[in-house]
Structure formats: structure tokens, C-alpha cells
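Researcher: First entry.
Model:
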Amino acid sequence: MTFQKALFLGLSLVVVVARAQQSGGIYDSALHYIEHGKLKSAATLLAREAPRQSPSVRAEYFALLGSVYEDQGYLIAAHEAYVKSKRIAIERYKVPQARAINGIARVNVARGNYDSILYYLTISRQLDPSAENAIATKQVEGKYWQAKNQYDKALSALQNALDAASQAKDRNSMAIILSSMGSIYFSHNPDMQVALGFYKRSNQLDDTLRPSVTLIRNYCRMANSYMVLGDHENAGRYLTRAEQLTVNSEYLTLKAYVLSTRVILLAEQGQIAQAVELSEVPIRIKREIGDKRQLQNDLLNVAELRMMIGQYDQAEKLLAEGTAISHNLHDLVYLKYFYNRRSQLDSISGHYLSAYENLKKSFIYKDSTFSVDHLRAVNEIREKYEAEQKEKIIAEKELQIEEQKYQRAIILGVFITVVLILFVILLLIRSRSRTKLQQEKQVRLRTIVQTQEDVQQRIARDLHDGLVQVLGAA
């Protein structure tokens, strides 16, 4: 019976180890697919294998599956995967649960469901107080405040995340955060060089041998910045880089973003008809995946283009769809733009009363989002952060100087100690040498004295013996 139990336990252990190794291999394979942009293969593998795993591993699988769906742009599917991960991990596996909650909060921000976002993030921090999770939650918090048009709070959250990522030497998170900060300054600072500075800093942290989603997005954002500056040459150069990196990409949101940027550049170059034709592709993608936040931007841009070529009916439909989306997302910035364009369209169509009403709404939303105080707050945040960074640099330099002084003092002390030790050793050696010489002298003296005594005794003995012999002979 004992042998059977031992055999059973041994076989059970082998099965557990085999399953663990198989699970690790599957997870690594999924990560390999993600790293090489094969999101469909990663999603298929994770969706098939997740139900077969143990609860803790299953929670990790569904969390990763949620991130894959999120990268693909399928926000509803991503939300469902994160919810499954959270349900599995609840009460037992805190770190996977915190990760799933972050994913739910991030997806809800993208979908415009802002209720309970900050509550989710608080719970996530309580479950996982690690530095890594603090960086992740601060990034989501920054996205939340940015979506709520409270850019000063968004910048504060992102700057806290950046400081934490810098301390942890997390280059990937630092690149993402800098890119997000650049997008805020792009919208709320007339000086495009500020935004470009953030994008360039973000790019420096990226691995150019294996370009990331952040790098591609930065290229598009830099293209938009150069378009604002009227530099179409640089805009086209960076946009072409982004297009080359997304030729075979399965990141639908990213692909749509690159196409939307190309539409804007074509319009800037006067190729309106070609821009309108190309715009159908990113709009279709964003409608398909439910990316409403980016869709409203495309609807606004394409509506303006259609107004320029006299397609007023199509423009009206696009503006109506965009206005409804912006109301759903509570996006005051885009509501300002949509009502302003609807006012222009009503004016062209001769509906002056409606144009006046829409223009009033546009001014209301403009006052809500672009007040002087608000812009000042954003600039104050940047100035405060830059001042803190300068103070931090000065403090670090002062600390380095103090450390250098301390190191020099230590080196000097060690040097003096070594010299003293060598001096003492030298004195001891000399003392021993003198003692040895004295001992040798004493030995030589004793030898000489002893030799003299021996000679004298031998002479005396010889004299004595010789005298005795003479007397004896006499």
C-alpha cells in the first residue's frame, strides 16, 4: 500500500511538472507571436489553451488575451477577457487580479465609460502595491484625465508615472509616457517644438531594431506636428516610416491611425478627392472595432473635406454621427469642433437660425475647454515639472559632489593608512635587521674570544707538555 501511494504521488508530480512546462511553453509562444506582431495567432492560441489551465495560470492567460484584443482594437472582446481574468483571480491571486482591473479600466476609458475608473485604480493599487503596478495605474489615470479634458491632472499623473518608471529603469514605460505627454502638449501648446521634444525623447528609448507600437505612433504624431508647422517634407518623411512598419501589421487601431494621418497630409497637399477616397478605409476599421474616440476625429476631418468639394449631404451625415459619438464620450473638445462645423454647414445651406444655435453651442464648449485659466494651468504644470527636474538635477549633482568628496576622503584616509602601515613595517624590518646584526656581531665576538681562549689553552698545554718532556729527559 505504501509503495502504491508513493507511485501515485510520483506520477502526480510528474503530471503537474509536465503541465507546468507545457503551460510555460504555450505562454512563451504567445509572447513570441505578440513580439513579432502576429496578434491573431496569439489570440487563437490563448483562447484555445486558457480553459485548460489551472486557475492561476488561466487568469494570466485571459489577462494576456485581453491585452492582445486591446492591441487589435477589439475593445469589447478585450473587456470580456479582462473580466474573466478578474473573476478567476478574485480573492486568491492578487497580482493577476490587479492586472485585469487595470485592463478593464483602460478599455472603459477608450470606450468612454468613465464611471468607477478611479475606484478601479485604487483597488488595483491595494491588491498590488509594487512599483510596476504603480506605473501602470498612473498611466491609466493619465488617460482618464485626458479623456475628461482635465489636462493638468493628466500631466501630473503621467509625470508621476514617468518618475517612477525612471527610478525602475523601465524604458518601455518611459517611452509610452513621454509619447502620451507629447500628445497633450500637441493639443494645448501652440509651440509644436515642445510636443516634438517629447516624441524624440520617447523614440530615443525605443529599440530601433525591433520597432514598437509606440515608435510607430510617435512617427505619426511627429508627422502631424510638422503639418501644423507647415513642414510637409518632414511630415511625409516620418509618415512614410510609419507606413513601412505597418504594412503587414495586425494592430488595426495603429494601421487606421497611420491611414488617417495620410488622409490629413493628402488634404494639406491639396489632393482632396484622393484624401476623401482613402478616408473610407480608416473609418470602416474604426467602426468595425468600435474605436469611437479615434472615429470622431476621422468623421470631423472627412466632413470638412466633403464640405470643401461640395458634398454637403455626406458631410451632414458625418457631422451628425460624430456629434452623437462625442456626446456619448462626453468629449467637450470635439463637441466644440462638431458644432462649429455644423454651424458652417448650416450657413452654407441657408439655415441661418440653426447655424446661429450651433455656433452658440460651439462657443459654450470652447469656453469649457479652452479657457485662459485652463491653458495657464497646463503651462504651469509643465513649468513646475521642468523646475522640479532642474532642482532634481542640481540635487543629484550636489549629491554626486558630496559623494566624490566622501570618496576622496576615504581614498586619502586609505592612502595615509597604507603609508603609515608601510612606515611601521619598514621600522620593524630595520629594527629586526639591527637586532640581527647585533646578534651576528655578538656571535662573531664570542667566536673570536672562544678562538683566542682555545689558542691560549693550546699554547699553554704545548708549553707545559714541552717543559715536562725536557725535565723528564734531564
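Researcher: Second entry.
Model:
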Amino acid sequence: TAEYSEEAWDWFRDNYLTQSERSAAKVYRDLEKIAKAQGWTVPSRKTLERRLAKIDTAKKIYLRKGAEALKRLFPAQERDRTALHALEAVNADGHKFDVFVKWLNGTVCRPILVGFQDIYSGKILSWRVDISENWDLVRLAFADMVETYGVPDHVL
């Protein structure tokens, strides 16, 4: 409830919420020097710290410690498969093997595997191998899955 200049609060807040992470006491000492020169009314440090406490914690962490620290503030996402059923959702992915293969046409390269996996069970539903990751490879692997297990509700 103390009377003070809004400029003093703005200066204190802006200099406290920096990645230099200066203490509130240090910023307050600097504010007192500047306020004297500018003619600002300055409340006690505790008053300014109480006003800082009203600022959102996530915002303070982002401004003082950066984006990585803000990410650590929130827990990692945990996925729960119990709400799904078999073939409700499948995902596809490709993998380049760490071996070189000589193909029938004489090409030597690392083969690519494209597979489809049921998200609920983790079961591999279909897979195909080819020289490169291409649409034909994806379509054939998808067709194998549909032919054997049926059409999924969602594909990722």
C-alpha cells in the first residue's frame, strides 16, 4: 500500500527479470541510486518483492532462467494406452539399416524399412524394405497391414 512511482516499479521489475539473475537486494540498491537522480518515489524492498510475487511463476522462470528451465518446470508427458483398443490408432516410421546391401540391380546402398505399428499393443503389423523411403514402399506396407488386420481408425 506504500506510495511509489510507477517508473520505479517498472525499472525494478525489468532489471530483476533478466537472465543475469541479479538478487532483488542488488537491483534495489541500483534502483535507489537511479531513483534519487530521477526523482522517483521508492517503496521498501519488501514491498517490491511482494509485488514480484504476484507475477506468474512460469513467466519469472522464463525471463530469469530461459526456455530450457521453463520446460523443466512441467513434467514430461506420459501416454496412457488403456483408453485405446487394437487398431484404433497405428503409427508408421522408417529406419535406415547400418549395413550395405548389394541389390539385384547392382546398386549398393543401405536398405530402408518402413513399418506400421499398433499403438495400443505395440505390435508390428506390417513392414517392407526397399532401396529408398518412397511412396510405393509406404503404400505397400500399408496395404499389407489392411489386408491382414483391417483398416485402422487413425494413422500417424
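Model: Note on the second entry: Strands lie at 89-96, 101-102, 108-109, 112-118, 124-130, 154-155.
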